């Protein structure tokens, strides 16, 4: 069985050092110099799209927690808004006032098939879609 090597570029060539992990986003192997090995088992390479996804996920989880605590008081999930909730975001499942979300055509999974549907999506989730559409 061949040992896995780093697939990241170092200048014009591939690194080829011994792999330390496999990226959870792109599945490429990477060495210790070209990625992050998280204590929780998260392995992320140094490619721009993968780093952006890792950083976005950390921001998103903090955003969801903040929205959750505001929702406990039946307030919009956006800090400082103070309005009562009107709709639930189809993506993050937090509740927001009408000013902090819109109805967009989005894809939902029904019976294991992605189908387009008009759904309420908060501004935060709608904005982050572009990060996750990159490979």
Topology:
Layout: E1 9-10, E2 13-14, E3 21-22, E4 29-30, E5 35-37, E6 43-45, H1 48-72, E7 87-88, E8 95-96, E9 101-110, E10 113-122, H2 123-133
Antiparallel strand pairs: 1-2, 3-4, 5-6, 7-8, 9-10
Helix pairs in contact: 1-2
Characteristic terms for this protein:
two-stranded antiparallel ribbon, 135 residues, two-stranded antiparallel sheet, 2 helices, single chain, 28% strand, 2 domains, alpha+beta
Q: Radius of gyration in whole Å, from Cα?
A: 19 Å
Derived structural class: alpha+beta
Spatial strand order of the main sheet: 1-2
**Which regions contain 5 or more consecutive residues with pLDDT less than 50?**
none
Amino- and carboxy-terminal Cα gap: 28 Å
Helix content: 25-40%
Strand content: 25-35%
Average residue pLDDT: 91
H/E element order: EEEEEEHEEEEH
Q: How many helices in DSSP terms?
A: 2
Number of structural units classed as domains: 2
Q: Let me know the largest β-sheet.
A: 2 strands, antiparallel
Tell me how many strands there are: 10
Q: How would you characterize the overall build of this protein?
A:
The radius of gyration is 19 Å and the shape is elongated. It has 2 domains: 1-46, no CATH class; 47-135, no CATH class. It starts with 8 loop residues before the first strand and ends with a helix. α1 (48-72) runs antiparallel to α2. The protein contains 2 helices and 10 strands, in the order ββββββαββββα. It has helices spanning 48-72, 123-133, and strands at residues 9-10, 13-14, 21-22, 29-30, 35-37, 43-45, 87-88, 95-96, 101-110, 113-122. The protein has 135 residues and is an alpha+beta fold. The strands form 5 sheets. A two-stranded antiparallel sheet has the order 1-2. The protein has a two-stranded antiparallel sheet with strand order 3-4. It has a two-stranded antiparallel sheet with strand order 5-6.
């Amino acid at each position: 069985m061949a040992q896995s090597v780093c697939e990241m570029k170092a200048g014009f060539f591939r690194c080829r050092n011994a792999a330390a992990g496999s990226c959870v986003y792109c599945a490429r192997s990477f060495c210790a110099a070209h990625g992050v090995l998280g204590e929780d088992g998260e392995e992320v390479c140094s490619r721009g799209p993968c780093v952006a996804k890792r950083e976005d996920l950390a921001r998103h989880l903090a955003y969801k927690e903040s929205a959750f605590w505001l929702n406990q008081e039946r307030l919009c999930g956006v800090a400082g808004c103070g309005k009562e909730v009107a709709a639930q975001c189809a993506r993050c499942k937090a509740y927001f006032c009408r000013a902090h979300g819109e109805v967009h055509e989005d894809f939902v999974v029904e019976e294991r098939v992605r189908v387009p549907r008009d759904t309420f999506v908060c501004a935060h989730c709608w904005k982050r879609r572009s990060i996750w559409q990159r490979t």
